[in-house]
Amino acid sequence: TLLTKTEDCNLTQVKIDEVLCLVCNIAAKISAHDTMPATALLAHLLDIGSNVLLYVVLLHSLRGAVNSILLHVLRHVCILDHCLPVRHRDTAEEAERTAEYSWG
Known about the structure:
This is Dynein light chain. By secondary structure, the protein is mainly alpha-helical. Helices cover 63% and strands 0% of the residues.
């Protein structure tokens, strides 16, 4: 198009002043590829370490939830199969009957 040709013709008239650029100042600010700043590592370890108590509480509550689900399922299985030794005692009469049965 005619518009882009007129805009591009001005680009050739731009002068760029080139200066001898040394990279010694830039190289001093950049660390080597196999080093890691100690402050970033310490900050990362503190960030992970601050959540340890949260992880412990979360796992403890998760373990309690799994145990309660397993006990609930086991109760349903015990209702179907009366031979299983682990079950909840509903009444005192049932507890006495089980005690008499186990003693003889």
